[in-house]
Amino acid sequence: MADVKKKDSQAMEPSPMLSDQYSNEETVGQVRELTDVEKARMQDGAAHFNRLGWKRLTVVLIVEAIALGSLGMPAAFATLGMIAGTILCVLLGLLAIYSSYVVGQVKLKYPEVQHYADAGRLMMGRFGYELIGAMFVLQLTFLVGSHTLTGSIAFLNLTNNGACSIIFGVVSAIILFLLALPPSFAEVAILGYIDFASIILAIGITIIATGIQRTDSGMSSDWSAWPAPTTGFVEAFIAVTNIVFAYSFAICQFSFMDEMHTPKDFVKSIWVLGIIEIIIYTLTGALIYYFVGLEVKSPALLSAGPLLSKIAFGIALPVIFISGSINGTVVGRYIHGRAYRDSVTRFINTPKGWISWILLIAAITVIAWVIAEAIPFFEDLLAISSSLFISGFTFYFPAMMWFLLIRQGSPFSKENLFYTALNGLCFIIGIVVLVGGTYSSIKDIIHRYDVGEVRGAFSCGVPS
Questions:
Q1: Per-residue pLDDT tens for 315-340?
Q2: How far apart are CA 138 and CA 327, in angstroms?
């Protein structure tokens, strides 16, 4: 037991590599002698933000991960066909578990890494820190925006388009803002059980409703094992990026692990989460596509029929807003912690800390609302977010971490050959999704505006 404690304490010692880089870089925030009161507040703050065990980490990861991704799965299956959809869903899920494992290994080796951007500094210096930091902020803000859009769609469905979609977008943004205010992830974990029950019930209702509708119609579904003959490159890649979007949990893992009291337990969390995700996503995509066929809608809850889709959306409201808000909390923690890195203000337990935190979360939420109104269509908003950012955070950045930070010895040595191939595959997948997905997303957005399939930006039409 003593040896274990000694190893844990050694693992948590500051890494010389990261410490030297921080000391050589421009300091962000205030640097001055702290008073005794401030030191006490910093100790209280550190204790407050160090309460996550692996079970709570699993719950927080579920809150962050299992949300909008599942709602886009049936439409992705309809585009790719049952066989390709199932294979991609399982394969990309397993690769996401592995890449998340690599992220956790980096955190254990370099305990000072608090957010993904810090790992960018280790790999590429200040340039990597700023580049990945910007991607980190944009991706999480896009996620908050996608939840704002989904909330608007839900309220429109529940009220039979009872008000302008902009109004419902504002209502959604306000709810997301309020839920993002608690700064500690341990506090969010309490809501995770409601969140998980919400999405499981909503999906379950949709699967049962679509199955009953298919049985009552007496007609066979037009689902297919293969992609439709008319499926082009753009449509196929949009579907692939929607599956990639569903496995985006690695982006917040550094931030969550930074609050763990026993970081090495993270492996249990990512395996539990990964297996749950693969099962939920594959069953959701396959079953709803099987029952509805090629006419399946996105978000999938819209396929349940007029009445049951209202019930499903009502039950899904907690997951829409709880999962969306945690992304705002993570990006807020990154920005706030960077701005006040050497100040007691970063612990958000002083008047200045709370005022700056509330203003920051408000600014993030407003920007997210603007994104939701500018790209008011569900599939393409997920696709462009997935292509530009998740391709890196889930695939090619973890692969780079293995090669640059984790690997020991030659990449072609006998003990490294399998991992070299595996990380090479992750890197190639990430780059392909980045290039092909971004191109497809932009082409599809332009096409939809040209043919009038979607409402204009900042208008009262119904989002698609």
A1: 989 888 988 898 899 899 899 988 88
A2: 11
| Domains of the chain in sequence order | 54-451 (1.20.1740.10)
Supply the pTM of this predicted model: 0.81
Residues sharing a CB contact under 8 Å with residue 85, sequence separation 6 or more, in sequence order: 73, 76, 77, 239, 243, 285, 286, 289
Write out the two tokens for 230. 């008319």
| Distance, CA of 337 to CA of 116 (rounded, Å) | 13
CB atoms within 10 A of CB 192: 22
Distance between terminal CA atoms of the chain?
57
- Axis crossing angle, helix 68-80 with helix 116-158, rounded to the nearest 10: 80
- DSSP conformation letters of 120-136: HHHHHHHHHHHHHHHHH
Question: DSSP per residue over 355-396, as a string?
Answer: HHHHHHHHHHHHHHHHHHHHS--HHHHHHHHIIIIIIIIIII
Q: Which of 228, 204, 227 is nearest to 287 (CA)?
A: 204
